[in-house]
Amino acid sequence: MFVRHRRRAHYRGWRKRRQRRTPSYQRRRYHHPTLISYRLYSNSARSTEIAIGGTISVPAGTGVAQAVPIYGRIVASEQTLKYPPAGNYTDTITATLTWN
Fold first, then answer.
1. Residue 56: which domain range?
2. DSSP summary character for residue 61
3. Which of 2, 19, 26, 47 lies deepest, with the highest CB count within 10 Å?
């Protein structure tokens, strides 16, 4: 994601496509009903999870586009199948930007 703004920006509105018992996002295999649960993080160590409906902050803007990396992790214990089929899985994440 790239953001360009002169003020501090907060990101809200992370949503998953389907509700589950676990607070994770899901990716769907193209033309297949299999889902793979995953979680999103705001740091490369994957220690700061982005909660569904949560927010993250970025440094104050300078007017130049800046990258806002988002990291993911598949958690084996949250999968509905022990060995999901190999393939390409896709999902859409919605981010809403608000400024203070």
1. 2-99
2. P
3. 26
